[in-house]
């Protein structure tokens, strides 16, 4: 098992394209990123297109330094689950990562902490690394519930996951009030909550394991705030929405000033 600290953890920048890009637009975007990110080897880069573009994007990514990720999955291997996409299907496509528990899935589609945990187990059992999203609403923040809510989301998401598996999990702290709003937590506040997440993982496992787990910040991450976010002690990367849809912007995020 590989144990890391901040200096040893490989930064991870992942682009969540959400419900954007046709197949041709996705191919064009990845071709642009391949050129602009050629030679980058000190940051792990993940692109998460919509399901419709996963297969063609996989072909374009061949020979690149970028990994393929999905935006969601379902925990059953197969069956009468109309509209769902299974982990085994994602594995067949060559996905290395899958986002789960995003606030839009929780909010619009009623996904629960239990659902997120089931998806995490299914992904890990098939060799796909989960990017587990946690975060609070503006109302919850103003009510002083941020710390307890995020703590409980992390505990629920990791229920039953072994120490040897959790080192392959990425946690993304995404304050819901900052997603797609143009508002962002200050770098200090983002780092404070991410440190709380790290302390929560330490409670469940141990000091060695917690130093291996990468924790991202998400929520209006842009070229003008990436440097200060990545300079913080516990922030290991970013889960990026809108800024991942433009070659120039996403390239600037990956090539943040160290």
Task: Please outline the helices and strands.
Blueprint: E1 12-16, H1 23-36, E2 44-48, H2 51-61, E3 66-70, H3 87-93, E4 97-100, H4 103-109, H5 113-125, E5 129-134, H6 138-142, H7 146-157, H8 163-166, E6 170-173, H9 187-204, H10 207-210, E7 214-218, H11 226-230, E8 237-240, H12 247-254
Parallel strand pairs: 1-2, 1-8, 2-3, 3-4, 4-5, 5-6, 6-7, 7-8
What does this 3D model show about the protein?
An eight-stranded parallel barrel has the order 1-2-3-4-5-6-7-8, surrounded by five helices. It has one domain (12-254): TIM Barrel (Alpha-Beta Barrel). The chain is an alpha/beta fold. It has helices at 23-36, 51-61, 87-93, 103-109, 113-125, 138-142, 146-157, 163-166, 187-204, 207-210, 226-230, 247-254; strands at 12-16, 44-48, 66-70, 97-100, 129-134, 170-173, 214-218, 237-240. Helices cover 42% and strands 15% of the residues.
Question: What's the short story on this structure?
Answer:
The chain has 258 residues and is α/β, with parallel strands linked by helices. The protein has helices spanning 23-36, 51-61, 87-93, 103-109, 113-125, 138-142, 146-157, 163-166, 187-204, 207-210, 226-230, 247-254, and strands at residues 12-16, 44-48, 66-70, 97-100, 129-134, 170-173, 214-218, 237-240. The longest helix is centred in the C-terminal third of the chain and has 18 residues, at 187-204.
